[in-house]
Specification:
Radius of gyration of chain A: 20 Å
CATH superfamily of the largest domain in chain B: Thiamin diphosphate (ThDP)-binding fold, Pyr/PP domains
Number of domains of chain A: 1
Largest interface: A-B, 45 and 50 residues
Structural class of chain A: alpha/beta
CATH architecture of the largest domain in chain B: 3-Layer(aba) Sandwich
CATH architecture of chain A: 3-Layer(aba) Sandwich
Number of strands of chain B: 14
Distance between the termini of chain B: 42 Å
CATH topology of the largest domain in chain B: Rossmann fold
Shape of chain B: globular
Oligomer: heterodimer
Number of helices of chain B: 12
Largest sheet of chain A: 6 strands, parallel
Number of helices of chain A: 11
Distance between the termini of chain A: 57 Å
CATH class of the largest domain in chain B: Alpha Beta
Chain lengths: ~350, ~325
């Protein structure tokens, strides 16, 4: 196993580093502003079902989305608004799914974070944690059968999902099949209310990489530059034939599990520790310190993000809701085999 | 002569030969040819397309779903139907919901070597069809003949939805046919395996043969028993069942699976709700006993319905 840790991208061209950092920051900011809006709609009773936010995880998520390119496969989890945007998901897919628009990708059949466009490489997660690992592994096997070798699949998980059987089976299978597979674990210290001490006892989750025979990487999940470097390097390694890569990012979830949860169980000492830093604020400080941006420019970006999400929400509010009378109630693609429908 | 097992092997060979999107993934299916030799020689015949998988039922099925999203048509062999519970989540929550949620078809075939054989015991004998039929989004096939084992498996691979293919291990070697079929009954249609007028037995899979043996025996007493082979339990061909009950007025449903809920209960529920007036006597059902499947032949032979116990039930039905 290679233990990779964040190192400054010394050789990279500074303007390229700056452009990438700024681009990632924009996705992080748009995700943050979007989620603030979604939370406000939820409090206003405009959203049916749960709301799950990624505050504190935007740097890692944006880095994941940005490391991928068109043709790759991405299986985001519930705190990946930034990564979804960076990968190319539209804001309308987000608002339409949260608000149940019939025009959204899930058409009112599934909600909130359970959205995707599998044909475009964006998997639609099910709730069972770890279940997307083998699915992404399978997409990569299919590409291998077809002779496509330069695409990567990236799966996003939390620390809690590392305890599942699907995690073990999926990562092991990806390793056995030597797939271009990247697993990004956001160790955000809590799985709902359960602290990591009740989840696993290994010293560091990245140590699991040795057991699976895959490459392990650790990264400070609050540090955008480190996330861009480490996730980018892991994706490049997978793409160039280096086999599966396991990234473990340390950070703290800065919101409840969902908006229904006040997260009063989070240890106050953790909140005050470096883990509890807000990656968006740290990125803003970095932009100012490096003179890559200004307070005014940052405010403009925030205003622009707000305009985008307000527009998406306004559009969605005008759209039709699902109609039970026009729903076909047939779960099969082979319509004539649906029970309760007459043969065509 | 070709056996039920050889028909399954031949169907897979044809699917692999006809369609480059087909591949086989499962435990020991490669060079070894599978625990029952259902993939014998296929790895050599189709290099790189018949792959040994780690013992990871969840990941095997999950990977098939991912490959199906990408346009492949995987055939998955569970070594025993019983082990599919380890992959249950991927089957019922991922594969079964994919098309409904995302409009992307999920054309995977999951072969489940099913049902009891003497000496196999609680974990190598189960019949899982009712469990999977319960979930929307799955098609559940239970072929009872060599011809159906062949043509239905080819149909399973061609269908754009996840198919649970319950192939019966007892039939693997016991059932033989002259040749492979060139025509097939459409998927979702039941078949009248024996015509009669005094009572209808509705059954499927290995119990078809116990039921036919019973009908033959009872024919010497002058009774003409109609026997219906459901072929697929989901969708369930209620029309053929109701039409038969309309002719006979008496219904016995026989299944090898456990009694609570299940296919026999579903058939009776449908006939009772949609065809109550057709019945001249209360419908009856016969299932395995409500215990795990026993290991020893003395116990196993009594645990599941047989031609003898079906005849006992049938005589009661005819006397009612």
């Amino acid at each position: 196993m290679v233990q990779a840790t964040a190192v400054p991208a010394a050789s990279a061209d500074t303007s390229e580093v700056k452009a990438r950092f700024l681009a990632a920051y924009r996705w992080m900011l748009l995700a943050r502003v979007t989620e603030e809006k979604i939370a406000a709609l939820y409090r206003g009773g405009k959203i049916t079902g749960g709301v799950f936010l990624g505050k504190g995880q935007e740097a890692l998520s944006a880095a994941s989305g940005m490391a991928l390119r068109k043709g790759d496969v991405f299986a985001p989890l519930i705190r990946d608004q930034a990564g979804r945007l960076a990968f190319g998901e539209s804001l309308l897919d987000c608002t339409r799914t949260y608000m149940g628009s019939r025009l959204g990708p899930m058409r009112g059949r599934d909600g909130n974070v359970h959205r995707g466009r599998p044909k475009e490489g964006l998997m639609a997660m099910i709730s069972h944690l770890g279940a997307m690992l083998p699915v992404v592994a399978g997409t990569l096997m299919a590409r291998r059968f077809r002779g496509v070798t330069d695409t990567v699949g990236l799966v996003s998980l939390g620390d809690g999902a590392t305890s599942t059987g699907a995690f073990h089976e999926g990562l092991n299978l990806a390793a056995v099949e030597k797939l271009p597979f990247v697993l990004v674990v956001a160790n955000n210290q809590y799985a709902y209310s359960t602290p990591t001490s009740r989840q696993f006892v290994c010293e560091d989750l990245v140590d699991k990489a040795v057991g699976y025979g895959v490459v392990g990487h650790s990264v400070d999940g609050t540090d955008l530059q480190a996330c861009l470097d480490v996730v980018g390097r892991a994706v490049d390694a997978a793409r160039s034939g280096g086999g599966p890569q396991l990234i473990v990012a340390s950070l703290l979830r800065l919101v409840g599990h969902g908006e229904h949860d006040d997260a009063n169980y989070v240890d106050p000492k953790l909140r005050k520790s470096p883990l509890g830093a807000d990656c968006l604020e740290l990125a803003e400080r970095h932009l100012i310190k490096e003179q890559w941006s200004s307070a005014e420019a940052l405010q403009e970006m925030r205003d622009d993000s707000l305009r985008q999400i307000e527009e998406a929400v306004a559009t969605t509010l005008r759209e039709p809701l699902p109609d039970p009378n026009n729903e076909d109630w047939c779960p099969l693609a082979t319509r004539n085999l649906c029970e309760g429908t007459s043969p065509e | 002569m070709i056996t039920y097992l050889e028909a399954i092997r031949e169907a897979q060979a044809k699917a692999l030969a006809d369609d480059p999107r087909v591949y086989i993934y499962g435990q020991d299916v490669g060079q070894f040819g599978g625990a029952f030799k259902a993939t014998k020689g296929l790895a050599k015949e189709f290099p790189g397309r018949v792959l040994d998988a780690p013992i990871s039922e969840d990941a095997i099925i999950g990977s098939a779903i991912g490959a199906a999203i990408e346009g492949m048509r995987p055939i998955i062999e569970m070594q025993f139907a019983d082990f599919s519970t380890v992959g249950f989540n991927q089957i019922v929550n991922q594969a079964a919901t994919l098309h409904w949620r995302t409009q992307i078809p999920c054309p995977i075939t999951i072969r489940l070597p099913s049902g009891g054989t003497a000496g196999a015991g609680p974990f190598h004998s189960q019949s899982m069809e009712a469990l999977y039929a319960h979930y929307p989004g799955l098609i559940v096939m239970t072929p009872a003949t060599v011809e159906d084992a062949y043509s239905m498996l080819l149909e399973a691979v061609a269908i754009d939805d996840p198919v649970i293919f319950c192939e019966h291990k007892y039939l693997y070697y016991h059932l033989k046919a002259e040749k492979l079929p060139t025509e097939a009954v459409p998927t979702g249609k039941a078949r009248i395996a024996r015509q009669g007028r005094d009572a209808t037995i509705v059954t499927y899979s290995a119990m078809l043969h116990e039921s036919l043996a019973c009908a033959e025996e009872i024919a010497s007493e002058g009774w003409e028993i109609e026997v219906i082979d459901l072929r697929t339990v989901k969708p369930l061909d209620t029309d053929t069942v109701l039409a038969s009950v309309a002719r006979t007025g008496r219904l016995l449903v026989v299944g090898e699976a456990w009694p609570w809920g299940g296919v026999t209960a579903e058939v009776i529920a449908r006939v009772a709700t949609e065809g109550f007036g057709l019945l001249d006597a209360p419908p009856m059902r016969l299932n395995a006993k409500d215990t795990p499947v026993p290991y020893h032949p003395n116990l196993w032979g009594t645990h599941r319905p047989t031609a003898k116990t079906i005849a006992v039930a049938l005589r009661r039905l005819l006397a009612a």
